[in-house]
Amino acid sequence: MVFYHRDTSVKVLSVSLFSLCYSSVHQKKSDPEPSCVSMKSDKSMHHPFNFKNEDTRLILQHRSDVRKPVCEKYDQPMNQPQDSTYPDVSHEVLNIFRSNMMKKFGRLYEGTATQKNPTLLNDIYTELYITESESGEISNEHEVRQIETPSRSAAAAEDTAIKCNDIFRPLPGQDKAIRTVLTKGVTGIGKTVSVQKFILDWAEGKENQDVQLIFPLSFREINLMKEKKKLSLSDLLHVVFPETKEIEISNDEYKVLFIFDGLDECRLSLDFKSKVKLCNISESASVDELLMNLIVGNLLPSALIWITSRPAAADLVPSECVQRVTEVRGFNEPQKEEYFRKRISDQSLANTIISHLKSSRSLYIMCHIPVFCWISAAVLGKILCRAESGEIPKTLTQMYTHFLILQTDIKHEKDYEKNVTDEDMILKLGKVGFQQLVKGNLIFYEEDLRECGIDVTEASVYSGLCTQIFREEFGFYQGKVFCFVHLSIQEHLAALYVHLSCTNHNRNVFDQSTKQSLRSKMKNLFQLNSSKHVSFSELHQRAVDVALRRKNGHLDLFLRFLLGLSVESHQILLQRIMTLKRSSSDSNEKTVEYIKKKIRTIDSPEKSINLFHCLNELGDRSLVEEIQQYLKSGTIKEAKLSSSQWSAVVFVLLTSEEKLNEFRLDKFVKGMNNSENIKVLQKLLPVIKESRSVQLIYCGVTDEGCAALASALRLNPSHLRELDLSENKLGDSVKLLSDVLQNPHCKLEKLRLIYCGITYEGCAALASALRSNPTHLRHLDLSWNKLGDSVKLLSDVIQSPHCKLKKLRLYNCGVTDEGCAALASALSSNPSHLRELSLTWNELGDSVKLLSDVLQNPHCKLEKLWLRDCGVTDEGCAALASALRSNPSHLRELDLSENELGDSGVKLLSDLKDDPHSKLQTLYYRLSVFRRQSSFFKIS
Description:
This protein has about 950 residues and is of the alpha/beta class.
């Protein structure tokens, strides 16, 4: 997690954690000192122009006269290509441009508002875990749940990491050109900081020196332009980056990169089906048309594009326009500790903070998010320095409440604003947070604030007082943008507003936020003016119902905070900054019972996971502790668990410190191949989709279970590595699994479907899926299925140069000489990957000679070949022996048991043991039972 400096067009009253505004700023000496992230510059710059009143080109001309960029000489020359094709003026301009970028992105302000010394980004930057990702389906979970999910966290990720500076470079084995990269990640995970570090490394001449110009633009500023008159891309760049006025951007001699930060904040109508086509950067159009044509590649097709977004908005750009999707996973385990050790100079204190966070599973999971690390460091650093061990936060609500108190303490140091009370400010900010949260807004413009009854001037005051909570930004069109420093802070303040409305003002805001009849409104008004108290239990129950109805789960963390605030320890905390007129803790017992009732009645255990987090905030762990005892004693399969208990099993397994490496259904069910097992399987699907290996052997899985399993795996296709469904009556429902396998992000390596009733149709579906995605599967076992000639379809997969299959087992699959010929042909085309092949109990006859042709290929790496009871004769045996003499260096094991081998065939094979070049270690050739004699030899 890094906090950084950035510039905006005019004086700003606040600071930011993660955002990008790219024009200059004026900072007055009398301004409050910048805190953790400053948007202030130490340079006085010209105020922006308002496009409402002036002609665009007149503005540009005026800017060129009065706003000359300030530059500093580099201490050492840049790695700028000195090519004669560049005019001399371009070298100077490019160096000025880089110098300005270094000043914008090189510094950061971190910590509390009393810190005066800026920190260099390079001194504190902690590398984030970034991987190649799938566009995939949009998750209907709160972003915190995505972080809490084991497979989505950086700690559990095993994918190849991509360094931030390498996002436009193909991985080894990839040959695709990358023009557009979409980087997604939950709020506060470090997307914008990664952008900043990328730009800084480029400006300092360290990385990506083939790029001459980088144009960073944030969507929150671009939004301010949506109502403006049309302008060209050239005009836009000259306004935002006046240094470029002397450069002909349309000239292909310049390699440029556009960075669009915060797609999720976009309020433009990006219509990628629009017929408006722009090919010249001098053509005028609306801003959304400019962006669309730039992303599609109509404008500046040689330019690189980098877009950042939260996951929920990642599909706003069509997948065909994006060549690479990356995901910022946040901090992995070593990076968490690295951050705290860099952030806190006292290493003993850093160790204490790390130890405390590790002791609370819910807090330590959240440390994948860099901004939460910053909040934790600020809060715990303050508390532990005071040795106030009795109140060290152990839940999310406690951590955020302490953070709020810390910020109000800082506010009190600003004596010029003492007339603003804590409660009034918190209620006003909380109201904005709540009303905009319900609408799904994370950034607010002036009209949004007016809808909440907040005056813009009033909002500016709050942003100046609470620089680490609420901020105000100015774009280069003089429009104001407001936002909370992080979504979780907005959610906490929203919950506090709802809580205080009930505690101090006897209001249930959920009654006011829904449509009511006139009679109902009059009734509520009468209650507000009466002595009758609004029930906290009713408020909480109403909040639970509203949160559960939200399909995207975006009120889940808000609900945790709201319920956590009702605990008595929080009442004591809140009294530090305000007066509470009544206690809410008396109603918690009813709230706990209501939540447990909801857990019992919710069909999907996955939906109930957040309710267990709510119980944790309320201090009730009875269900969880009961299940933990079952799991610890190994008696869970003996117990007849209720629906709520199975939900608790899911919660315990998903929040466990232990990795979900293997899931075995037989650990949870008593009888195998039992129809009741399917019900348990469906209860545990959230665990299955987070497991690396899923073992469902002889579990009674049928069409229904296969469909449910496939549906779960589709939600997380890149995590599963091994799946065994052997001895289940799947039949052709295996086609449902094929839909998962053909997903380009499916990385399944081992698939066993032994004795599953798969026929030609099912095999055809599997083969089709593997043709679409052949690069990951390493082990395929389809033994004891009536495949027949459908094996030829698998052969088409094997001969693909992208197929990396190492083990193929086809015991007793009805493979004929025709199927054997197809396999042999495929292996001749792609002989270098397969290591094990089993065709035991198939009537191959002398078609085994075709396999001999493969074995003698010098590129063949086959190590184990099983041909038991395949009708192999002396003639076939001779062909095999000849092949092994030609290419003796790889085959280690050969099984020819129960074949019609004569003495001559046996002798040819046994002679191989005397060949000094042969690597054959084990040879089985038990004679056919029809000859009523047998022999077994093992060569060693």
